[in-house]
Design a protein that fits this description.
By secondary structure, this protein is mainly alpha-helical. It is built from six helices and no strands.
């Protein structure tokens, strides 16, 4: 493993750590905002502002409108998917708890991931479906059951 690969893995672990923390923070905000949808909207506004500040500080070039027009129509729905995820996490966190919520999210994410890898969709490199990968997903769902039960 190269240094860059190691740093990327650490970055991924840090992002993963922040997922349940974010759900708890947003669920707390929902109590004060009166709804999970308001809390999710506020979260996205704050996140958008943070990205704009990073964009300006890094002095990145603005994307070319002509390039954006060439993007496939389906590539524009990522924000809606993110909004759905955040709204679900805000609603589910106080009902399921962090462990069950994140285990269930992870099992769903990895189920979709092995399918996306198998077909090599979007920018994902193709990795064939194998019994080992299928067993891994089955074990994840077993983990969801154990975390929820105990």
């Amino acid at each position: 493993m190269t240094l860059i690969e190691g740093l990327l893995l650490i970055l991924a672990v840090c992002a993963g750590i922040l997922m349940p923390v974010q759900a708890g923070v947003n669920s707390t905000l929902a109590q004060y905002a009166g709804s999970s949808i308001w809390a999710s909207l506020i979260s996205f506004c704050v996140g958008s502002l943070a990205l704009l500040i990073v964009f300006v500080c890094m002095r990145l070039p603005w994307p070319e409108v002509s390039s954006l027009r060439e993007a496939p129509a389906w590539s524009w729905i990522g924000g809606a998917m993110g909004a759905f995820f955040v709204a679900c996490s805000v609603m589910l966190a106080p009902r399921l708890g962090a462990g069950t919520m994140m285990a269930t999210f992870l099992a769903g994410q990895l189920t979709a991931s092995i399918v996306l890898d198998h077909i090599g969709w979007a920018t994902f490199p193709q990795h064939s479906l194998s019994w080992g990968r299928i067993a891994g997903v089955i074990l994840l769902f077993a983990g969801v059951y154990l975390i929820r039960r105990y």
